[in-house]
Design a protein that fits this description.
The complex is a heterodimer of chains A (about 210) and B (about 375). Chain A is α/β, with parallel strands linked by helices and about 210 residues long. In chain A, about 30% of the residues lie in helices and about 30% in strands. The chains are: A alpha/beta (about 210), B alpha+beta (about 375). At the A-B interface, strand 5 and helix 7 of A face helix 7 of B.
Chain lengths: ~210, ~375
């Protein structure tokens, strides 16, 4: 075994992941090869003992929970939806948005009917309406959620709202906020124990970096 | 008969070694039947790792279950009072779903239970056995220890109860300090109390350092009792030279309806999940109408297959080819001779398709000749 333990970090593909990487970079965990244009999947900086890889945002928690990644950056929406058994070590305060119920502007909720809810996040939606003792019919979609109420597929949608622009442009509006979302630094529970010094140090530097930025 | 340990898989090896370990400490093997009345589990569902239970109707119409757990079956019949202490271990197959996997699985589980008068000595013995169990499985292990009374005591002292306590425990379990801070500020909990909760959540340190670090947080009778018990355990374990590799992690919270005192969880490097879990479960005993105390743990052996890191490169050391005209007695003798030297030998007529071997030998009247060597 090598003297220095490598830390595997799962980054979500896309804007959030790139932003998160810049924080890691500024905190002293840079990995220059990640900036090169190529089709490589894994990027290593042996000297710093880190290894990055890009995965689909919703898969980050799976990589972390199963220990393929020690550390990951995941949105709170993904954590709430999948409730993985992991540590949530820090709120990065980036990728801020909210999980909200949205519907057509002229929609009037009728409580004597089962509410049809289209969403990418069935567990979050179920939990929210359960807490309100509301009977709902979940329609699980994988994209273009905003279409559902427009075409009459559902009464409302439960989805992530950032600026609300897409909603407004399509005659929809957010009604209730379920929970505020931001990116979190998550860790595998067993890695946290066996690589404690490295992970704790990384977590501290990242939090410091966030605070100062 | 002697069995070479190298021929065994990790989990098989662990079963034999653990059995030997437990019997050396005077624990006796306890066998339980494969089936149990469903009712037993229905009443204690949240004690089980997964609530799914495989059931069937027995010939007399009773609803039966394939055991998802062994502890309940064991304590069902013992521990009505603490006049006698039972020290038992088991090695049984249990049937349950595991996280993430679809459907039921048969899982081999080994564990031990100490039921009766549980004092510091018995507690330390069980913790020591948990640690030794891990050491049998791997060289690189960690045993995390926690105390239900410590966290519960702090929450009681601050005045967090009911649904609030449940959500706070959830945050503690995920070491989610930012959520705890938000939770506390919403409820106007004082800064000192907030810091205390955050500190014990984030704490992860060797037992000696950890107890030193939390000394000033201790408040209230319940927390003090828990702290004193942990200190007592640390005293005994370090006296035995076994305190290394034991860490304190108060985020390991088990169900408070069942577990009340010290709880622990074991990890080995290379398996991304706990493989040992246990603690003192007097509350479960009380729930079942028993007066005795109890402490025990289970080792989930199904995880060990992941430790067989590399799949074996070869199926067999040597393949000995012969043809239908060969003298079979001589073929057999030649093969036996090689096996006696400690090699595994497979006799094959003609083809070696699909066999991965180190060495290929050919038997002919003149003797054995080497056709191919792979190593």
């Amino acid at each position: 075994m090598s003297l220095k333990q490598m830390i595997n970090i799962a980054l979500p593909k896309g804007r959030l992941g790139e932003k998160a990487y810049r924080v890691f970079e500024a905190a002293g965990y840079e990995c220059p090869s990640i900036r090169e244009e190529n089709r490589k999947l894994i990027f290593e900086n042996e000297e710093k003992g880190i290894r990055y890889f890009w995965v689909k945002p919703s898969d980050v928690v799976i990589y972390v929970e199963r220990g393929a990644a020690d550390i990951g950056i995941a949105g709170k929406d993904i954590i709430l939806e999948y409730s993985p058994d992991i540590y949530e070590l820090a709120d990065l305060g980036m990728g801020k948005c909210r999980m909200a119920v949205a519907c057509k502007r002229d929609f009037c909720d009728n409580r004597d009917r089962t509410l049809r809810v289209a969403t990418k996040f069935p567990n979050i939606a179920k939990k929210y309406y359960n807490s309100q003792s509301r009977e709902i019919d979940i329609i699980k979609l994988n994209g273009s959620i905003e279409l559902a109420p427009i075409l009459g597929l559902s009464d409302v949608i439960v989805d992530i709202v950032e600026t609300g622009k897409t909603l407004y442009e399509n005659n929809l509006e957010p009604r209730e906020t379920i929970v505020d979302i931001s990116a979190r630094l998550v860790a595998n529970k067993v890695s946290y124990k066996f690589k404690n010094a490295e992970i704790t140090a990384m977590c501290e530097k990242i939090s410091e970096q966030i605070k100062n930025s | 008969m002697s069995v070479s340990f190298t021929a065994l898989k990790n989990d098989e090896r662990a079963v034999f070694s653990l059995r030997e370990l437990y019997s050396r400490y005077g624990y006796v093997r306890h066998k339980v039947s494969k089936f149990e009345e469903y009712d037993l589990y229905a009443r204690n569902k949240s004690f089980l790792i997964s609530e799914n239970i495989l059931t069937f109707t027995d010939t007399d119409g009773r609803l039966m279950a394939l055991k998802p757990d062994v502890t309940l079956s064991i304590i069902k019949n013992i521990g009505n009072d603490d006049s006698q202490t039972h020290k038992l271990y088991y090695n049984e197959n249990v049937y349950r779903t595991s996280a993430g996997a679809d459907g039921f699985r048969e899982i081999m589980q080994t564990g031990l239970e100490c039921v009766g008068k549980i004092d510091l000595c018995a507690t330390c013995e069980v913790i020591l056995l948990a640690k030794k169990s891990l050491e049998i499985i791997s060289e690189n292990t960690i045993l995390d220890i926690s105390h239900m009374g410590f966290v519960a005591g702090l929450m009681e002292n601050i005045g967090i109860e009911g649904a609030d306590a449940d959500s706070l425990l959830g945050f503690i379990e995920h070491k989610n300090v930012s959520a705890i801070k938000a939770f506390c500020s919403e409820r106007a909990i004082s800064e000192a109390d907030t810091r205390a909760i955050c500190d014990i959540t984030a704490l992860y340190a060797p037992i000696g350092d950890a107890l030193e670090a939390v000394r000033d947080i201790v408040r209230g009778k319940k927390m003090k009792a828990a702290y004193d018990e942990l200190c007592g355990i640390y005293g005994v374990l370090s006296e035995c030279g076994s305190a290394d590799g034991i860490y304190v992690d108060f985020s390991t919270v088990n169900d408070m309806n069942y577990y009340n005192g010290v709880t622990f969880k074991g990890f080995v490097r290379g398996i991304p999940d706990g493989i040992l879990s246990g603690g003192s479960y007097d509350s479960l005993m009380k729930k079942m109408g028993k007066r005795a105390g109890a402490i025990g743990f289970a080792v989930y052996l199904d995880m060990l297959e992941r430790l067989d890191s590399e799949s074996e490169k070869y199926d067999v050391d040597t393949v000995l080819l012969y043809d239908s005209g060969s003298d079979m007695a001589q073929v057999a003798r030649a093969a036996e001779r090689m096996r006696a030297e400690g090699r595994s030998v497979r006799c094959e007529l003609g083809s070696t398709d699909g066999i991965r071997y180190r060495q290929l030998l050919k038997f002919s009247e003149g003797g054995v000749s080497v056709l191919e060597t792979n190593d």
